[in-house]
Amino acid sequence: MRYSPLCTDLYELTMLAGYLEERMHETPAVFDLFFRHTPFNGGYAVFAGLDTALDYLEQLAFNDDELAYLVGLGVFRPAFLEYLRTFRFKGRVTAPAEGTVVFGLEPLLTIEGTLAEAQFVETALLNIINFQTLVATKAARINHAAAGSEVVEFGLRRAQGPDGGLSAARAAYVGGVRGTSNVLAGKTFGIPVKGTHAHSWIMAFADELTAFRKYAEVFPDSCILLVDTYDTLRSGIPNAITVAKELRQIGHELAGVRIDSGDLAYLSREARRQLDGAGFPEVKIVASNELDEHVIDSIREEDGRVDIYGVGTRLVTCAGEGGGALGGVYKLVRIDSQPKLKVTSDMAKATLPDRKRLLRAVAADGTFLLDVICLGEETVLPGATVYDPTNPLRHTAIPADARLEELRTVVMEDGRRCGRQPTLDEMADRIKAQLDNLPQGCLRFINPHRYKVSCSKGLNDLRLRLMEEIEHGYLKA
What we know:
- The chain has a domain at 136-316: Alpha-Beta Barrel (TIM Barrel).
- 39% of the residues lie in helices and 19% in strands.
- The chain has 16 helices and 20 strands.
- It has helices at 10-21, 50-59, 64-73, 78-85, 115-120, 122-146, 161-174, 183-189, 199-203, 208-218, 232-249, 264-277, 293-301, 313-316, 424-437, 457-476, and strands at 28-34, 45-46, 92-96, 101-102, 109-114, 150-153, 224-226, 256-259, 284-287, 308-311, 329-335, 338-339, 356-362, 368-375, 385-388, 391-397, 403-406, 408-413, 416-417, 453-455.
- It has a 7-stranded antiparallel beta sheet. A 5-stranded parallel beta sheet has the order 6-10-9-8-7. Strands 17-13-14-20 form a 4-stranded mixed beta sheet.
- It is globular, with a radius of gyration of 26 Å.
- The two termini are 50 Å apart.
């Protein structure tokens, strides 16, 4: 899918025009994209959206219709509009692999290029990475709550428009939700599509049993019946059992039943009892209705017998405390040969300057210990002292027996991708393995463990020096 270059904020264009006028547009620049706080008040986030972002960067170009629209605004000079005709992204991108577990303040994307190209792509990259990382994180939390039961994304009708529905289905898959009701997402991304029928199917027939029979006639090998239209336990399940017996007599098996309302823990237990008692232990029980990680967790705590969770609204809209938006930002960290940082009275909001690497300290058994942000050319070894980026007075040491792994690689050079892009299945497998290696306290939904993200000595010293220089500059002024 092509992202129009007009999918941006106006100020990206006005700054670009200003840089051209000031002859600054070719100045080398480096920007970092990162977020400050993990979403949902949780212990981690799942990086997603990279492939979509690289598609955008590779295809970035203004067509005649888009240029004509900008002419019609009456804001920009002809020389700038002519400059846009050949404008392309030809820079470098450094990033983790999609499906990597990440934390606040860590550089996710680093964009290097001319000031013009690196600045202009800010809005689109934030739009892509913020949303997909948020959805992938929510999906991972829901998948963790399901504890091995299957989860299917059912959220298209509640998503933020068709584009949001498509991006949400992709990101949910990266987060471990390996099925969707969204047929376009199935075609676009190869995600398995799954679904049942609506209550209107039942209500369109004279009675529930007739509706079940007719649906089974059309889909005898993939029949999942919605059993809560009238009374789940006194009507829906008994009628589903009748149809299951009829299917078995002609060589087919009922695939499942879906419960979409009521006390899902109780109803699923009773449905399981009835189905097992009738000789259908293999029939799957699907639950839906405003599910999220907390509801699923409570269903399991109450011994619910759900095999498949259909999760819609609260996944694709990322509902819940601490959700709604990731809050990722895009900051200049180097221009020409000068490291740059944004300073503020709140140390937690001061940025980290210059080109950086992101390292992960890993124990011998594979457990993640802490992450370290360091300068691009800095040598960091196990045993080194590292500093809290929000409070430099707090420090710790990298365990001496840890190994340090690079979390990011160059994924785009000269505006073209580097190497093979992993499949969605590989991304989903990666986050599953990563969450297995995360300290288990980070997976808690309430008061999760705070995973340490630290600055190296070199980065901490540079940051403090630049802050001091800026402060002295203000005093002199």
